[in-house]
Specification:
alpha+beta, Arc Repressor Mutant, subunit A, 10 helices, rod-shaped, disordered C terminus, RecX_HTH_3rd, Regulatory_RecX, Regulatory protein RecX, RecX_HTH_2nd
Length: 220
């Protein structure tokens, strides 16, 4: 494929409306996105040397990675790590992926602290769980430990306690018959699996015993 010469023809791709096909010396040489086409004035008659060719292709690759990142972010908020992994999965280099994450962060499209805050809010609203599980989820999303502690630190103990109480009430409401020791154990294990601390689960258990259960049970 030619890397230098004179642009002899420019064609707009029939299926990809913002992609232009460039011929050098009557031979197809490369394609670029519309933004790169305009930026570098790739009109018929323009002379292209190997350095200019490399610069244009590098700019086009960066533009494609940027557009891919913006499109990925348009569906829902993402963490920086999610965007970087997505771009690498699209066969962009890790260096370019990192660069696009930095660019998206600078432009306000990416904000890991805001992402973590919204993630926790949505989880507590739609899929209630304890801070331990939330911490693990945010860690899997690549959120920095300092940001995780900052975001989860805003959840008051009483708020987390209310979430656990609500989950337990919902489970109990679907049970038929008395709450025996075996059933109680399963209910409390359910809360532990949801990421609530052992001490918090004990407190919820004690409250429920006072309200609903008369038999003395062994400590959890």
């Amino acid at each position: 494929m030619k890397t230098s010469g004179v642009i002899t023809a420019v064609h707009r791709d029939s299926k990809r409306k913002k992609v232009y096909l460039i011929d050098l010396d009557n031979e197809f040489a490369f394609e670029v996105h519309e933004e790169v086409f305009i930026k570098y004035h790739l009109m018929k008659g323009t002379e292209v040397d190997s350095n200019f060719y490399a610069e244009v292709l590098r700019a086009d690759q960066e533009n494609r990675a940027y557009l891919a990142a913006i499109n990925y972010l348009s569906y829902r908020p993402r963490s920086s790590m999610e965007v970087e992994r997505y771009l690498v999965g699209k066969e962009f280099s890790s260096e370019l992926a990192e660069s696009m994450v930095e660019k998206c962060t600078q432009e306000g499209y990416l904000n890991d602290e805001l992402f973590a805050k919204k993630w926790v809010e949505e989880r507590l609203r739609l899929k209630p769980r304890g801070t331990y599980m939330l911490k693990m989820e945010l860690k899997q999303k690549g959120i920095a430990p300092s940001l995780i502690e900052k975001v989860l630190g805003r959840i008051a103990y009483e708020q987390e306690l209310d979430v656990a109480r609500s989950l337990l009430r919902g489970k109990v409401a679907r049970k038929t018959g008395p709450i025996d020791q075996k059933t109680e154990h399963k209910l409390l294990q359910f809360l532990l699996r949801k990421g609530f601390s052992h001490s918090l689960v004990q407190q919820v258990r004690n409250e429920w015993r006072l309200e609903n259960w008369t038999e003395e049970e062994e400590e959890l």
